[in-house]
Amino acid sequence: MNPPQRVSPILENVVKSNQRVNTLDINITKNTFSMEDSGRGASYTVPCDDYVHVVEFSPFDSGSAALLAYGGNQYVVVGTCRFQEEDMEVEGIEFTTLRVFHHALRVDCLAWSPESRLDKLPQLIRFCTAAADRKVRLLTSDLQNQHEVKVMEGHTSYINHLVFEPTEGKQIASVSDDHTCRVWDLEGNETTTFRLRSPGVSVCWHPEDAFKLMVAEKKGTIRFYDLVTQQAILSLDCGQSPLMSADWCLTNTIKVGAVTGSDWVIWDITRSSYPQEKRPAHVERAGNFRWSRVNENLFSTTGCPGKISSQLLVHHLGHPQPVMIGSATVGAGLSWHRSLPLCVIGGDRKLSFWMTEM
């Protein structure tokens, strides 16, 4: 199930037009892992052959077990996860590797397309990545013989976040240290550019309105844009910086959350442009904020990676203290399962999963 430690850099010289992507020819592998016993340790872990820089559950219904992708130094692994909480025949977690994609550079961002499906033929896997060469790569595979990549060039600095338009998946938005948010079509054309006043750190699409986009800037401002008029229609202010990560609550879209400095902040966008709640989260600077996909009051934050141990906190708006505290060796990335109160972070040669009691 694990990717090899050495992979060939096949994406290095890809141009903007259609290009076949070679993938490692592997058989589908299925492994079951048991629950961890330690109190602050993860509920489940899956071993990997390299450091995991980014990990993402697909937020969309793929017609099968949950799709998950994680990226390392020169590869992306795509697989499915099943947990004992959803299938009585599974002990712990069952992780099935579907495909390992070679990637020339370290994977820094990854986003799933809603078009990814496993319950129809041909099967379709589609996701995009960003790397240090400032390019967005759109990868598409039928998990058989057809594998394609498109490369989207335009950003002039590091790309911090990516997202697909969630209703049809025909557009991708990206934000960068170059003070822009750019929207792309699936042919690699840049269709819209928003000039920002500081580096863009997060971008989110409204779950039902394809013309509403949320962009968070490092200096502490979050703006909502109308893609028809290409104008900002609402802004939120943290009151402090740096804002490192923000997320739009997809189960209740009047809620927006972020981490800024060492605090988490929550807005009700119908009431005020200033946060309704703000609390200290991490001793040092916070790194990620993500809402649960099954409970509008549940969210998680992580400390910035780079320490020997990175802290994961799960919070509930009805509780003054975190409802769960986890610790992972140099954690990176943060993502919630689409139908379970479970989140995952990457780390040094493993994925760590935490189940939350609601």
Counting DSSP E segments of at least 2 residues, the number of strands comes to: 31
- Give me the oligomer status: single chain
Task: Give the helix level as a range of percent.
Answer: under 10%
Q: Percent of residues in beta strands?
A: over 45%
Structural class from helices and strands? mainly beta
Rg measurement, Å: 19 Å
Summarize model confidence as the mean pLDDT. 86
Number of helices: 0
First-last Cα distance = 32 Å
Low-confidence stretches: 1-29, 33-39
Main pleated sheet: 6 strands, antiparallel
Shape: globular
Q: How are the SSEs ordered, and which strands pair?
A:
Blueprint: E1 19-20, E2 23-24, E3 29-33, E4 44-51, E5 54-57, E6 66-71, E7 75-83, E8 93-102, E9 109-112, E10 125-130, E11 136-141, E12 147-152, E13 159-164, E14 171-176, E15 180-185, E16 190-195, E17 200-205, E18 212-217, E19 221-226, E20 231-237, E21 243-248, E22 255-260, E23 263-268, E24 277-280, E25 286-291, E26 298-303, E27 309-316, E28 324-329, E29 332-336, E30 342-346, E31 348-355
Antiparallel strand pairs: 1-12, 2-8, 3-8, 4-31, 5-6, 6-7, 7-8, 9-10, 10-11, 11-12, 13-14, 14-15, 15-16, 17-18, 18-19, 19-20, 21-22, 22-23, 23-24, 25-26, 26-27, 27-28, 29-30, 30-31
